[in-house]
Amino acid sequence: MRRLGGVGERRRSLWGGQRRRHRRVVVDRGRVAAAPAAPPAVSWRGGSSERWDDSSARDRVCLPTRGVVGCTFAPIGTSGVSPIGRRADVGVGPRDRGPVVSAEGLGVEVVGTVSEERHALQARRIRLFRTEAVVLRRRDLAEADRILTLLTRDFGKLRVVAKGVRRPLSRLGGHLDLFGRAQVLLARGRELDIVTQAQLIESFPGLRQEPWRAGWAGYLADLTDRATVDEDPQSALYDLLVDCLRALSSCDDPFAIVRRFEMRLLVLLGYRPELVFCPRCSRRLAPGPLAYAPEQGGVLCAECMGSGANEIPLSVGAVKALRLLLADQWRLVGARQLSPALREQIERALRAALAVQVGGPLPSAAVATLLERGDERDGRSAASGAEAGS
Q: What separation in angstroms does the CA of 140 have from each of 162, 165, 168, 176, 199?
């Protein structure tokens, strides 16, 4: 241990034959009080035979470059960074968290402390991240693993691997059920991320009580998977899916919930339907014959309709219901007694819009419709049997 010009330093081997390991650097107030006009870069003036002379004390501050990366000094008032103090504690080694600056009144201030390269290196070292997710799909892999498609709140859609989740004693199996909402801890992998921990938040048990509820939940999951790309964060879509799954798990009629999801999905993707003005002539829609044109993205008036092959005729009541769905007033749509013909018009219009903008049709929609109709037939037969028995 020796003192060179007011700077205490402790050295070890290996830096051009020697290695210097600085635990603490104490800067003499008198030597750096008068900083030059141009901010000099902090540098190491190495060499065992080199001394800190008075002529260069004004231009340089002797700090280890490993402890302070990309750090420069400038006179007070040249920038808005807080001043460096008389003592600068610099940790070096595997526990190094960067320079710790304390006290005030030295006469110089810090312009930069850590370089962009160091930030990038620290970001690459972070392998674990936690997020909230809904399981959209799952596929078996090998003997006990499973590939999951997750819609996360913070990172968008991710495809991950759950190791050993199919084993009977797996701790992850009960927390990663289909359509379940869970808090997951993921580890970065070469191709797919790996689920290391999972905590179930909401399981939506009502979806498993009726087959048609599970069918419509699968349709919403497939539609979400089709409409999104990997690693594209969409928190609004995540909240919409969770709300619709929660409402679907306790409803008796899924029509308004499913139509709400389809309409809001179009809006979130940037394909908001035009339901007030004709997209061809730009005139306000009036009561009368109307038609929805998927390629035009809106409802055509009576004078403009009839020129397209894929136009879907709509009644005034269907247009009003679509406007309520566009305003997210889906509860009003669910409370009204809509005729089967009116429901079919609304469903066809939204399905046509999704087929043009997202792609389709999806087979899960037909499966869910068959399950719902089968449940209705079973309900009618059970009611007729009860009446005959009484």
A: 10, 10, 15, 13, 21
